[in-house]
Amino acid sequence: MNNLLYKHNILNHHTSYMASTAIYLHFLLFILTFCSFIHQLSFSFSSQEYHEALEKSILFFEGQRSGRLPSNQRVTWRGHSGLSDGSSYHVDLVGGYYDAGDNVKFGFPMAFTTTLLAWSVIEFGSSMHDQIDNAREAIRWSTDYLLKAATTTPDTLYVQVGEPSMEHGCWERPEDMDTPRNVYKVSPQNPGSDVAAETAAALAASSLVFKDSDPAYSSKLLIAAINVFHFADSYRGSYNDSLNSVVCPFYCSYSGYNDELLWGASWIYKASGINSYMEFIQSNGHILGADDDGYTFSWDDKRPGSKILLSNEFLEKNSEEFQLYNAHADSFICSLVPGTSSFQAQYTPGGVLYKGSASNLQYVTSTTFLILIHAKYISSNGGVISCGTSKVTEKNLINLAKKQVDYILGDNPTKMSYMVGFGERYPKNIHHRGSSLPSIHQQPQQISCNSGFQYFNSDSPNPNVLVGAIVGGPDIHDNFFDDRNNYQQSEPATYINAPFVGALAFFSAQ
């Protein structure tokens, strides 16, 4: 009997202990969950972290350089490449950038990249501090090349170096390229208003960047921009039709060339103040898409960017001629703001803008940049826009942009930074030839076209970290697969980084 009572007491004590433990564990779980919730609510990067990301986003462009690298090259695993580009055609086309993870120099996305890098400096250069010189150098590396492409031969614009179909069939370092470096151009007989007008925009925008630091260079850029735009306008036609399979399906001008003509004229007017470009915009705006609401801003479609750029002219000068552009700019911005009657964008469950399965972050960075520019523009005009029955403030727009920036830097469901080299966790197997193959300094022997695929198919992380590169990003469900073969998600591109430079500069100053 006593033995049974003893067991009963022990059992009661054990049961009481287990109940207390369970309550404690539930309480501990509640505390941990609550702390996690509070962390998510208060998660924020510091201005120093944004500045670090800014530095890395600019550094990325050094990894994309073609040509003879300078002595102050910081991405040291790269070497000289493409040193004979153009020589078989008796022109000097050495330099410029490789657009993404391949070794072709595509003039259309390179020009757009340059325009947005320049716009980043124009709007937010004062916040770049010790990175302003690096930003200018990133722009100049491209404009030096674009000047050669635009001024070497009268009424001719060289728009591409390399054979994309053959080059994409190889996996080799840019330093080892042995595929044909054929050169392609547009001319009066084979026009390319889209690529020419975008090149004019790049040169004009860049002329503003160097206006104070290098006035002679600035003037040279503006004169070239005016000449290239005259060529684009005088000989109208799409470079798709002139060059066909050379540029399609790689960088087809799907939106046509009207948006580039409006975009190029807008930039030349902003850079020069020449009234004839204002008159061109007023006379041709309706034909060139002033009445069209475009909701995607990219290397192909410039409509939202033109509206935002020209809306500033309306706000600064209170000019009736530009009211149309301001209305369309507001419409574009309103379409992005959840909770308004104008909202029509799509976001993933994690909160990032979603436009397409391939390289979605290019749309995120370009759109975020436009949001911040419009927020800046309206700050001097009451700081509010009307989105249907809703009022959207400058602060609302900045918060929306911040969500996109923070998502890319790591505040997302995967807790991964989509900028290589930033944060504790980032993509290690990016779809990029130079990054994934041994550096020419480590393995000087040539790695041939087909030999490189042993590295492409390897499970090992890329041996060379392409610091600052922003990859294509996650899918509509916020899933990301760090797979070299998954180029839709894992390939970086210059036009993903370019607008992000401006966005990071803005937040580094907050």
UniProtKB/TrEMBL annotation:
Active-site residues annotated for this sequence: 431, 482, 491
Domain Glycoside hydrolase family: 50-504
The organism's place on the tree of life at top rank: Eukaryota
Keyword annotations of the record: Carbohydrate metabolism, Cellulose degradation, Glycosidase, Hydrolase, Membrane, Polysaccharide degradation, Transmembrane, Transmembrane helix
Pfam family, one: Glyco_hydro_9
Residues of the signal peptide: none
Transmembrane region(s): 21-39
Any single biological process term in GO: cellulose catabolic process
Catalyzed reaction equations: Endohydrolysis of (1->4)-beta-D-glucosidic linkages in cellulose, lichenin and cereal beta-D-glucans
Gene Ontology terms for molecular function: cellulase activity
InterPro entries for the chain: 6-hairpin_glycosidase_sf (IPR008928), 6hp_glycosidase-like_sf (IPR012341), Glyco_hydro_9 (IPR001701), Glyco_hydro_9_Asp/Glu_AS (IPR033126), Glyco_hydro_9_His_AS (IPR018221)
Tagged with keyword Membrane: yes
Enzyme Commission numbers on file: 3.2.1.4
Enzyme class: hydrolase
Family: Belongs to the glycosyl hydrolase 9 (cellulase E) family.
Protein name per the record: Endoglucanase
